[in-house]
Design goal:
The complex is a heterodimer of chains A (304) and B (330). Chain A is an all-alpha fold and 304 residues long. Helices cover 71% and strands 0% of the residues of chain A. In chain B, the strands form two sheets. In chain B, strands 6-7-8-3-9-10-12-11 form an eight-stranded mixed β-sheet, with helices on both faces. In chain B, strands 2-1-4-5 form a four-stranded antiparallel β-sheet. Classes of the chains: A mainly alpha (304), B alpha/beta (330).
Chain lengths: 304, 330
């Protein structure tokens, strides 16, 4: 009997587990990692709500954002004006809702411009090294020598006020951070064996840079970009505060903090509510970035 | 018949803050068609640098190929710039290379399939569909089960041995004339080592490719290589048929190497393993005399007063760089 059972063992190679490799879907794993913890989900929800708020602002806002009502100015929160009214009698809640449009547009376009430029410059500097490295990075050092806000201030005052000029000014001001980060990461990534192996297979510089190196260097940048959106929203608020940002009466959160802080003792909701909006959005982008990094980082594959 | 690849007097130096490192100092060798050769030497003797120099993969600065010719089918590869199109069309398509660390030689963010099809698309201008089919054929050939669905897997889902199989598949994908395997089995266990070597031998036979096995392990080359070059501190000190090298070694260094390899069927009483005394020399500011001199058991006055000896024939196709053989066999 024992002998017979022994003979029944199938030859190696025809068993099912030999033929069918276990399959994991990478996308499903990423979603599982991302959704597995509460903070990224909270951040993601905040961002989604913000985007929806910006898109459906006319439907959500109880009043037009620039409708003045001098008689009811500086009102405390009430059922008519949930967050009160400002010094010109405009409804604060409506202005916060409309302000999300300005903040989102500026935050996202500035980060797209500065990170694309920064990534390309940083990648080139680190990949080619030598003179290219020194020229690009010394230029970035010069940019970094000025505080970002001061630089944006300088460019904005040269170009004049307006949405496009603010985007250009902040875009240039923000280049150095992604560029330096990219350069640092690429310097380490390009030492990897797979880059040498790809070169040994006859890949061109462009393929090596954008296909082999960039995807491996990207995760830390993703976090930086999402955090950067928060920083840009803050910087735009700062510029508006100084009077060279978005021209009034367009609603911006920074401008509202500026308007409201004069009345902070009398009606603190005016300054605090746009401040809370800025804080929530910055927090949301940070958490989103953190969650994305954990989900996308190739080195964490199989670990989480 | 002219050799497929002839390296003549290759010199690759590294300029460091502590001095000039002559990593490869006048190396000449040749590779014939469909031949398996072994390049043996201890760590840091310039084996890998020699191979990287052939494909101009030395990072410069600090590295620099200061002299020599790398003639592939009579055409000097060193006349091309390292990053030129001409050089890229040689790499992978004519001369391919696989590396020591299978765990890090594959890009973690690209699927196995993408990494296999990429070079097919670049060098053979295949359509993505055709490349994909070829890729699954190649994976099957190197012995990976369920090859078709494995194309969409990522490197971390593969074991070290499997990754090295993938590397072999990638290297052979464009049907190169020469495959350089730079310590291909150092990072895997002995069983996998044997499997990989069998696989490589089988594959190069099937593709009629020449194979260069670079290793510090004499056992690895003993079974597979037809000819062997022994390197020491940037130079070739002995070359010949594998049989001659193993049965009739002439250079004191090769003799020393073979003395410290245990052999089956030997008891401890019969033969003690004898290590080569001392350390490999620092490649910065090398003396003009033979670099092996301080460690050599057969050193004589002629060695101390003369520059590094050049290769001389001691038999049919058997060369050594040593003064001692002139008087008697050591």
């Amino acid at each position: 009997m024992v002998k017979k059972a022994y003979n029944n063992i199938e030859p190696v190679g025809t068993r099912e587990w030999e033929e069918k490799a276990p399959r994991y879907s990478e996308t499903r794993r990423m979603i599982a990692v991302f959704a597995g913890r509460p903070l990224p989900i909270i951040g993601f929800t905040i961002i989604i709500l913000l985007v929806l708020m910006a898109i459906f602002a006319p439907l959500l806002a109880p009043y037009p954002p620039n409708q003045m009502d001098i008689v009811n100015k500086l009102q405390q929160p009430s059922s008519a004006h949930w967050l009160g009214t400002d010094s010109l009698g405009r409804d604060t809640l409506s202005r916060i809702i409309y302000g999300s449009r300005t903040s989102l547009i500026i935050g996202i376009t500035v980060m797209i411009i500065s990170s694309v430029a920064g990534i390309v410059l940083g990648l080139m500097a680190a990949y080619f090294g030598g003179a290219t490295y020194h020229i690009i990075m010394r230029f970035m050092d010069a940019l970094m020598a000025f505080p970002m806000l001061l630089l944006a201030l300088l460019i904005a005052s040269l170009l004049g006020v307006g949405m496009v000029n603010i985007i250009i000014a902040l875009g240039i001001g923000m280049i150095s951070a992604p560029c330096r980060l990219m350069c640092g990461v690429v310097l380490s990534v390009k030492q990897n064996d797979y880059v040498l192996a790809a070169r040994a297979m006859g890949m061109s510089n462009r393929r090596l840079m954008f296909q082999e190196i960039l995807p491996n260097a990207f995760p830390p940048l993703l976090v930086m970009i999402t955090i950067g959106i928060g920083a840009v929203i803050l910087a735009e608020a700062g510029l508006s505060f100084l009077g060279i940002g978005i021209t009034p009466p367009t609603a911006t959160w920074g401008g509202m903090v500026n308007d409201g802080y004069k009345f902070i003792m009398y009606n603190p909701v005016l300054a605090i509510s746009p401040g809370v909006a800025i804080m929530l959005v910055v927090f949301g982008f940070n958490m989103l970035g953190d969650g994305l990094r954990d989900a996308l980082d190739p080195k964490l594959r199989g670990v989480i | 018949m002219a050799p497929l690849l002839r390296v003549e007097n290759l010199k690759t130096y590294f300029r460091t803050y502590r001095g000039l490192v002559k990593a490869v100092d006048g190396v000449s060798f040749e590779i014939n068609e469909k031949e398996i050769i072994g390049l043996v030497g201890e760590s840091g003797c310039g084996k890998s640098v020699t191979m990287l120099s052939i494909l101009q993969l030395i990072s410069s600065p600090p590295g620099e190929i200061v002299n020599g010719k790398v003639k592939y089918e009579g055409q000097d590869l060193l006349q091309y710039k390292s990053k030129s199109e001409a050089m890229n069309s040689i790499r992978g398509a004519k001369i391919a290379m696989i590396f020591q660390e299978p765990m890090t030689s594959l890009n973690p963010v690209l699927t196995i399939g993408r990494q296999l099809t990429e070079s097919l698309e670049i060098h053979l201008h295949m359509s993505p569909q055709a490349a994909k089919e070829r890729a699954s054929e190649l994976l099957h050939m190197v012995g990976i089960p369920d090859a078709k669905s494995r194309l969409s897997a990522y490197p971390h889902q593969f074991s070290g041995g499997m990754r090295q199989r993938v590397m072999i598949a990638i290297a052979l994908s464009c049907n190169p004339r020469i495959l350089i395997a730079d310590e291909p089995t150092t990072a895997v266990d002995v069983t996998t080592q044997a499997q990989l070597l069998e696989l490589m031998q089988d594959m190069v036979n099937r593709f009629s490719t020449s194979l260069v096995i670079v290793t510090h392990n004499l056992g690895v080359v003993a079974r597979y290589a037809e000819r062997i070059y022994v390197m020491y501190s940037g130079r070739i000190v002995e070359s010949g048929w594998a049989n001659d090298i193993f049965l009739n070694p002439r250079h004191p260094y090769t003799i020393g190497l073979l003395k410290c390899v245990p052999q089956l069927g030997e008891t401890r009483q019969e033969r003690k393993l004898v290590p080569i005394k001392g350390l490999p020399p620092n490649l910065i500011n090398m003396p003009a005399t033979c670099a092996f001199l301080p460690r050599c058991d057969f050193a004589s006055d002629i060695c101390r007063s003369n520059p590094w000896p050049s290769l001389e024939a001691v038999g049919e196709n058997h060369y050594i760089a040593c003064y001692y053989h002139k008087s008697e066999k050591p």
